[in-house]
Amino acid sequence: MSSLEGRKLYVLNYMWDNSVIDVALHKVGWVYRTQEEAKSALPKVAKELGVEYKL
Fold first, then answer.
1. Fewest CB within 10 A of the end CB: N or C in the chain?
2. What confidence tens digit (pLDDT) does each residue in 20-42 have?
3. β 8-11/2-5 pair status
4. Interatomic CA distance for residues 30 and 8, integer angstroms
5. How far, in Å, CA of 45 to CA of 38, rounded?
């Protein structure tokens, strides 16, 4: 799960529960199966949101 606070995107560990938010995040391509997969995709997500990426 993530939270956009200020100009920072916080990414958290989250368990899928088939909610509307889960489905929406999946449709835009922001659901990842592994931490490695997420780490490689997060710079692009940050750019889409117009925020800085920092690991």
1. C
2. 988 998 898 888 888 898 889 88
3. antiparallel
4. 16
5. 10
